[in-house]
């Protein structure tokens, strides 16, 4: 049995790692949305966030490892999309530093053209990524949705909404559309909100 990180954002970061190419998949901006949505989803599943009038609100007191509940509590009511976008790039750095500190990854820091910082990530134990992928794959293809581990269900929902090809190539997203919708319904409002954020980016880019 291989140990995996407890937090959903840490799991999604590792799931974004491409074992074949030995590098992170996806753009930094989109990965940030996935990680922010993962943090919101974790808090929602644990009852530390609830939904009021289609917006997140503080729920049961508890751990707030990324400060998301604190941000929401100190702000006027805002949409789930707003909180998916909020600090998305910083979220990548935060989760990367957490995984490096806890020994899950190595990070080599370089600069492109001597100017632009680049972080080369290597997963220390590929079996961790394989175990996480196995959980997501089982959620997509295995037991009835009601019996799927909540974090595995959320991993599929987040990977689909964030178009994380290391977990769900586009063909799989089409093939398992109904199952993904069922897993997403189990996982709360953050994944659908992320999908809307990404769709809005597509619209803006094509305008």
Automatic annotation (TrEMBL):
It comes from the Bacteria. Keywords: Golgi apparatus, Lipid-binding, Membrane. It is a peripheral membrane protein. Its main location: Golgi. It is found in: Golgi apparatus membrane. InterPro entries: GPP34-like, GPP34-like_sf. Coiled coil: none annotated. This is GPP34 family phosphoprotein. It comes from Actinomadura yumaensis.
């Amino acid at each position: 049995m291989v140990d995996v990180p407890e937090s959903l954002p840490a799991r999604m970061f590792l799931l974004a790692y491409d074992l074949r190419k030995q590098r992170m998949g996806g753009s930094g901006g989109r990965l940030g949305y996935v990680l922010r949505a993962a943090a919101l989803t974790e808090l929602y599943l644990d009852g530390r966030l609830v939904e009021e009038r289609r917006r997140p609100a503080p729920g049961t007191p508890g751990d707030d490892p990324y400060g998301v509940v604190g941000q929401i509590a100190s702000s006027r009511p805002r949409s789930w999309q707003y909180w998916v976008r909020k600090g998305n790039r910083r979220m990548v750095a935060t989760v990367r530093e957490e995984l490096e500190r806890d020994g899950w990854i190595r990070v080599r820091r370089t600069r492109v053209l001597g100017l632009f910082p680049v972080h080369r990530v290597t997963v220390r134990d590929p079996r961790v990524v394989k175990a996480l992928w196995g959980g997501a794959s089982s959620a997509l293809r295995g037991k009835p949705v009601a019996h799927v581990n909540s974090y595995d269900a959320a991993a599929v929902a987040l990977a689909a909404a964030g178009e994380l090809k290391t977990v769900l190539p586009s063909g799989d997203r089409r093939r398992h559309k109904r199952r993904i919708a069922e897993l997403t319904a189990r996982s709360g409002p953050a994944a659908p909100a992320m999908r809307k954020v990404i769709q809005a980016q597509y619209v803006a880019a094509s305008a």
